[in-house]
Design a protein that fits this description.
Hypothetical protein af1432, single chain, two-stranded antiparallel sheet, 16 helices, disordered C terminus, mainly alpha
Amino acid sequence: MGVKGMDDLLRQWDWSEPPDLQHWQLLCQVAEREPWGIEHGLVAAKCVALLARALALPEETVKTLSLAGLLHDVGKISLPPAFLHAKTASLSESERIRLREHPEAGARIAQSLGLPEMVVTAILHHHERWDGKGYPFGKAGTDIPLEGRIVALGELTSSLLTPRFYRPALSPAQAIIRLEQMAGKELDGELVGAFLPRFPQLFGVGALSTLQNWHQPVSVDAIAFGEERQVWQATTMFFRQLLWDAERLLGKGFCYSLSSHLDHWCALHEVPLQVRHGQLKATGAWWQSLGDLVRTCRLLLSLIVNALSYLLGATFVKDWLENLRHALPEPLDAVGIRYGLWVWHEPPAEAEVKVKG
């Protein structure tokens, strides 16, 4: 993905607050040297956030660590353009030495940008390994700063899910096996144990058993941002159609009252959504998982269903919303079904569904 593609993405990015433009530009420079640089950084950041929340770290720390995950490979901009794009064989010894300099180069860049010390430390140590076989210092165990161990796990998880020159992307089931194998060796075993129960949220599902039976790789584009975009489009298009039809049936005053009620409720309960002039705006963090977004959209739609059912009767509302759902483009309706957005339905026997790769 080039810079123009990145500009296009930022214009479409409306399901959460996007990362800082300067950070995007740095990722674009990484992507000029290594395929999937943007997607790899985003997925690493999401994994870091999942782990940091599993450790019950303060939200500001989660945000800071996620930034370290996003920019962990920023030192690769010190490499020549296309350095890793054309590789079909193993790196030479001189190339390997050059590549291993990127954590220190990245730490210098982060420091020069005035990023928090936690970000600098995490970038510097993201290739250290629990067993002491990492680089640049060969530190082992708890001698590796916690932020370095956290970002190392996020980076390795993202690497497993991302295609490489020497192998295709692994499936979620294969990634789980590899993470379990690395626990206590390359990775801090306690961190792996804390992360794995949260790992399904990256794919919008709730149970680890779902991923353990998921044997097909997932498009890294879908993991990084593609699926969030579809979930958000399904939710916002349904909401617009609902307001248009409600205005036709019940008048502008009703629509204004409903929008104000939703906006007030979201603010009161710190739900990362705003309703402005009949439009939904997401205010969640860019490092949220797909699971976070799905839960937020379900919550909003549940609130709408409950409010309308109280005023108009559950049977009428269910039939009305069902007709609106069928008016959506089929791909968006399918996304809504896949993630259980249409909350007036009885839950299916198998409620957890996979991201389409």
